[in-house]
Target: Chloride channel protein
Amino acid sequence: MDASSDPYLPYDGGGDNIPLRELHKRGTHYTMTNGGSINSSTHLLDLLDEPIPGVGTYDDFHTIDWVREKCKDRERHRRINSKKKESAWEMTKSLYDAWSGWLVVTLTGLASGALAGLIDIAADWMTDLKEGICLSALWYNHEQCCWGSNEATFEERDKCPQWKTWAELIIGQAEGPGSYIMNYIMYIFWALSFAFLAVSLVKVFAPYACGSGIPEIKTILSGFIIRGYLGKWTLMIKTITLVLAVASGLSLGKEGPLVHVACCCGNIFSYLFPKYSTNEAKKREVLSAASAAGVSVAFGAPIGGVLFSLEEVSYYFPLKTLWRSFFAALVAAFVLRSINPFGNSRLVLFYVEYHTPWYLFELFPFILLGVFGGLWGAFFIRANIAWCRRRKSTKFGKYPVLEVIIVAAITAVIAFPNPYTRLNTSELIKELFTDCGPLESSSLCDYRNDMNASKIVDDIPDRPAGIGVYSAIWQLCLALIFKIIMTVFTFGIKVPSGLFIPSMAIGAIAGRIVGIAVEQLAYYHHDWFIFKEWCEVGADCITPGLYAMVGAAACLGGVTRMTVSLVVIVFELTGGLEYIVPLMAAVMTSKWVGDAFGREGIYEAHIRLNGYPFLDAKEEFTHTTLAADVMRPRRNDPPLAVLTQDNMTVDDIENMISETSYNGFPVIMSKESQRLVGFALRRDLTIAIESARKKQEGIVGSSRVCFAQHTPSLPAESPRPLKLRSILDMSPFTVTDHTPMEIVVDIFRKLGLRQCLVTHNGIVLGIITKKNILEHLEQLKQHVEPLAPPWHYNKKRYPPSYGPDGKPRPRFNNVQLNPVDEEREETEEEVHLLNSTTL
Model:
């Protein structure tokens, strides 16, 4: 849909173009006129029993009507149950309908697991391709290439004759400055090639394949329509470019985009089942289950995936969706385990086994890591949003390919000299999580050994750090600074980019440094009172890998503000169930510290930056404004455009549709009565009129349109009338003009409304849409206008139906207020009640 042709659609929550925009010039209001005299009757086109194709569907960038979709589903369910006893075929259809939900989540889980395994294997191979190639089997990565080699030693397990670096292939040198420079050049070449190919595919074939996808999925699950975002082209391109983006070495992860990939699978499979293809609300139940499957295969955490869908992305999560999410996560994890992409017979790459329990004193450094995670999260959100906003407002954002190439080039040039930044980020996290055992050859485990030790045991006592450990700490400090800076500029570029792994890497680096510091402190000062009770000489007291795991959880929690699901994901990810209390302490601390600087997580911040119509249930509305302060039209706006139930012609309605940009119209009884009858959507009116012109004879521009149940009498020579009662919402949600906005916002959140009509004594005054509420919330945040006075003050100041001379006001927002004797008495009673009430 062209945004320029429909710049402001305030009536149904639809037309929430991206970004939200104000319209300074509204459409001209069409003046309604009465029809001809009413003397006789004629035949009507009754559409009550005949469904009109297209009615009830939604345009792109519109919000669904949750209430209408749920009513449609209940009606479909009743119709199927009433017919299932008629024949065996109807019973079969009923069983198929009942099992279709389990079938679609099964297919989604199978596809998600298969694609995740494919992405993991391809990304590992292409990442190693930057360093060299396996001559014996080109499709093997570095580790697989040396598995079957007899020449590889344990200390140098990554070196074997079958694996050749690019320097060995091109210049024939394995060591020396020439070899280093050639490997450096080839590393940069492959990184730029992968990044350029990824951004080019995204730009040409599927622009929606960029980014994490989680902010958009949260918006879609809240009821917003983004055509093509979960389509087959997006799925195909995102799968390919995700491998390329991860292999390029950019500071991003594949875990967030895997949720997008899984939701694409769920959306595509839902079209195979009419129960979900024709109902947008039911389709979102499948997408909630698909997001759980995505996290399940991203981290190997089925339970964490279900909790992630419940806590972070889902807007509507009934109990049956919980069961189906659990089943989809189970199927996806089973498929991934069958593929075994990591070659370790486990679902995850980071599985660790620690042999030392944690002690009470260690809660203090764990909480400090939580503070660091909260500070990192607050800094990252502000810095990344500022950079993304600058990208949108400057010419730099018009050249996405150039931006990706520049970021990839800087990343590759700086990353190669440092072994910890040259590593794949997932491999880096694995090394930081791993405890130092007797068989570890990493420089992080280069401790000075006790020469009196006579046997190899699992629990190695705390030892003094060697030269390798101190060198690794300096390299990790440089890697920490590098990761912090590059992640800010990488998240949001036009390639698939996840945030989970980079945030965990930053936390793991900080945690490992803190863990080594505490370990050395305990070794050299074991007689301090904080160590004396539980850390004896020669005992294994401190596990630096545990600190890395806690730091990773804290930094990820600081960025996303997840709590329960994050703790479950991390202990499923690492197998560290015994350390759930330190994880909980660090995650809660990071959330509290982050919330002190702003309650928004990174996904909510990007939703607000892009202008998506998302009402966050976590936010509290604490202001004192009323519905009359938010409703449209405002005092200086054109009057409210309404339809009458039986006094308008087809031409009248078509003219009103063409001359206004509103996406729906209240239907009233007549110009004299002004009582509310229902609400008709612009799209439904257009489709119904076009359908009637094609299928029915005698429908012309002068045909009377009737929304009432009974047809008024018309002259015999008048054209055939058109009855459109079937498209009328007979029970639109209404509030009075003095309803507090706190209640209105709560209604919109819990019922998923598109619009709500505002009435005064049963007479329509205006309308509030989802977009109006979002604009109002944004104005209150920015303090564009001073906060409204208390509601009782507004109650007395609000213009009554009568003027100071006692005569009824002629019109208010194009609504005639009829002179009613009880009106003034009611107003005086209300004022007296308010004055005598203690507030």
